[in-house]
Amino acid sequence: MKTKPYYSVASLITLCIIYFYIELLDTSSAHPINDPLMRYRGGSTNNKASKNNSDESNNKIESHLGDSQDNLYAQKNSPSIEARDEFDYRRESFLDRIRIASRSLLLRERDAVLDSNIDEYDATTNYDDGMITPQSDITRPCRHMTVVTTATLPWMTGTAVNPLLRAAHLVRLTKRINKNSTAVESSETIEQQWVTLLIPWLELEQDRLDLYPNHNFSTPADQEAYLRNWLIEEANMPDVADKETGLRIVFYPSRFHSELKSIFAMGDITSLIPDEQSDICFLEEPEHLNWFRAPGEGWSKKFNYVVGIVHTNYKDYASSQYHGLWTAPALAMISSAMVRAYCHKVIKLSDVLQSFAPEKEFTSNVHGVRSDFLQEGKRRAAEIPSENKVAPQRKAYFIGKIIWQKGFDIMLDLQDYYKECTGEYFPIDIFGSGADLKEIMRSYYGRKKEVKQSADSTLTNDFGKKVQNSSVNTETISASPHQSEENTMSMDFLTTKAFQKLEKIRKKIKETTEALEFDLPKSLHELRRQPIPAEFLGRVEHSTLKEDYHIFINPSVSEVLCTTTAEALAMGKFVIIPVHPSNKFFMKFPNCLAYRNSFEFVANLRWAMTHDPEPLTPELTRNFTWEAATERLVAASGISFREARERERLNLSMLDERIAWFHSEIGKGERGDTIRKVFGAGPVSEQVKYQKLQTDDEESEEGIPRKLFRSSFAEALRSTLANTISGGLPTLMTKSR
After folding, report:
1. I want to staple 167 with a disulfide (CB 3.0 to 4.6 A). Which of 108, 197, 305, 419 is the partner?
2. Residues in CB range of 651: below 8 A, 6 or more apart
3. The domain that contains 144 carries what CATH number?
């Protein structure tokens, strides 16, 4: 019987805490006078230069080992050392040797310290503290950029759409920079592909069917064709969709984690980017990309400059679970370590996110919206008169995932307060789908009306499309496996009395369980007698909700930066949202009606129902464009000389390198696969085993794995065949004649 590895979790975490505690003390106590290696590090070195100078650094370290022993011998014979305790002297000597040895290992890899040198700039220019360092200056010509994300289309999620559009607009930015630069003379250089989008390819067919049920991609080329067609039709960017001169798309192998509802990479992603193109890297969700990553070269070692863009508040999602009391702090600590270790700069979309690395962070909305939303906003601005006149009552709506974390419990409370103030509920249309749709429908309608609606298999929305009722569909799906199993059983087994008796018991238990599940409400809202006038109309494209809807309501406080809120404002609609750090970017727009309490919500909704939104000015409209978002990205990614010197003074780069080294070491070998499995990696646990299989397949000769090709059995077989062909075949042919 195999022993479960769960007993090692506590000891592993304890060792990690002790290790980082010792390293923190060691880093904070290091001083250039007492620590000779600090003199060799200087301040900073470029990543590429450090790779070429690694041998020189090692030679300096080895020479210093001899010098340090001579100094220690001289100090030991001095009167000051003789007065000290022998144990303290030996302890300090041992720690010095360990420190020198450990740092020599770290210095063999590329240095991740930010380069603050100005050798590449004009020496005649007067540089001030506010100017951007060359390493972090994205506007320099001929710089390769790589955007890495954790999802891709047709999975319509924020980490799929936004990185794709960001990479597309970076293509236009690089071409514009190279075209206007005097240093670039060749037209071939301008038309060269400078931006790469690195996205996941789901190797397992079942994963693709689960995430892309309406699309059958058999190869990465099929999905790439879909993405380029989407850029042409939806984003209106045919120049970027060009396969030769536009965006370069590279897929990395991945698996879908059904429990975490996320995609994770298989193998070393960094190996897919050639060294000559490893200049700037944008990590979309850097913590997600590194939780279960395979052993390999670190991002800050591979690339000259790494910018992490944090999308999701994973700590908040973990806190909402029953195990959040202990998993949320652990997840926050691990995420902070991953972001700190592999990023030079961290961009948070809003301040609702946790702190990852204070000296590296900058808060900015680097997202935009598609042009079709802006076109709708311009159309509304042209139709609405300049003076604000009383208008007929407008319809309110919500669009997004139908899960409790999106603020549906808050919206139900607001409905109750609105009824207290006005005597009736406010009508609302809800678009979307999600795991909690059945429970939320019961909370809006009450138990009686929900039962009546669940009898129908479909609902019809305002656009003439039929949407499946989730309650009926869920029961149908859950029953289908049993039906398929029953059909595949042999007729002889079905006719046995024992099986028939078991089937009756099973059906009775199922009916009783379903009855109990229906009778037990999941929330007190299900006990309401008067249903709320809400319609659940299924999934639709947000850009299609035009004339009939003027008020978007989003009470969620778990968002980092809600994309649908930005889209509604760009379309020229009223947006009613709470005053919250995640909504700070939207507060400057006149159609944003923010509330601090339930009373203000009712007042804002009553105002929006009887008035027209103000038309957006061109200046306000531009804030939603991807061109403006790209400008904000350039500004947020840069590091000034003042900031670089402050980082050098804090001297935390060594801590970042040690975290990256430790993370790489514990992920190697079978031990690393075991650790990933213990921490819930699931289908992406066996990273090392996967890499070994890939290596064996790639390292082959004549279609045979190299290990088998060079084995003694293969050598004997080849020699036998060679002797047969050279000597045996002619003899046989002669005899046959």
Report:
1. 197
2. 27, 30
3. 3.40.50
- Position 308 scores a pLDDT of 96
Given this model, what pLDDT does residue 703 score?
57
Inside any domain, residue 87: no
* In a shared domain, residues 147 and 282: yes
Q: Tell me the residue range of the domain where 242 lies.
A: 138-368+636-641
The predicted model scores a pTM of 0.72
Give the mean pLDDT of 326-348: 92
Q: How far apart are CA 726 and CA 405, in angstroms?
A: 75
| Two tokens, residue 55 | 């041998």
Question: Residue 90: is it exposed, middle or buried by C-beta count within 10 angstroms (0-12/13-18/19+)?
Answer: exposed
| Residue 41 CB coordination number (10 Å) | 19
DSSP per position, 416-447: HHHHHHHSSPPPEEEE---TTHHHHHHHHHHH
In which order are the strands placed within the sheet that holds 549-553? 534-536, 428-431, 395-399, 549-553, 574-578, 592-595
Instruction: Examine residue 112 and state whether it is found in any structural domain, yes or no.
Output: no
Residue 192: the pLDDT is 84
Asked whether 691 and 293 are in contact (CB, 8 A), the reply is no
Q: What is the pLDDT of residues 98-151, one digit of tens each?
A: 666 555 554 444 444 455 454 555 544 556 778 899 889 999 999 999 999 999
Please choose, from the candidates 137, 115, 119, 133, the residue with its C-alpha nearest in 3D space to the C-alpha of residue 47.
Answer: 115
**What is the CATH number for 533?**
3.40.50.2000
Say what the pLDDT of residue 496 is. Answer: 54
Q: Could you tell me how far CA 150 lies from the centroid of its own chain?
A: 5
My answer on whether 241 and 199 are in the same domain is yes
In a domain, 34, yes or no: no
Region label for 305, one of left (φ > 0), alpha (ψ between -120 and 50) or beta (otherwise): beta
Q: Are residues 221 and 144 in the same domain?
A: yes
Non-local (6+) Cβ contacts of 95 within 8 A are none
The pair phi, psi for residue 77, each rounded to 5°, is -85, 0
Q: What angle do CA 198, 276, 267 make, to 5 degrees?
A: 40
Q: What pLDDT shows up at residue 505?
A: 78
Least confident range of 74-78, 125-129, 521-525: 74-78
Cα–Cα nearest to 224, from 203, 241, 211: 241
Spatial distance between the Cα atoms of 369 and 562, rounded to a whole number of angstroms: 11
Taking CA atoms, 21 is separated from 14, 18, 28, 360, 383, in Å, by 11, 5, 11, 21, 63
Letter string b/e over residues 162-189, b meaning 16 or more CB atoms within 10 A of that residue's CB: bbbbbbbbbbbbbbebbeeeeebeeeee
Measured CA to CA, the distance from residue 719 to residue 283 in angstroms comes to 52
Number of helical (H) and strand (E) elements in the chain, helices listed first? 32, 18
Distance between CA atoms of residues 112 and 303, nearest Å: 9
| CA nearest to 475, candidates 510, 445, 502 | 510
What's the mean pLDDT in 316-320?
Answer: 82
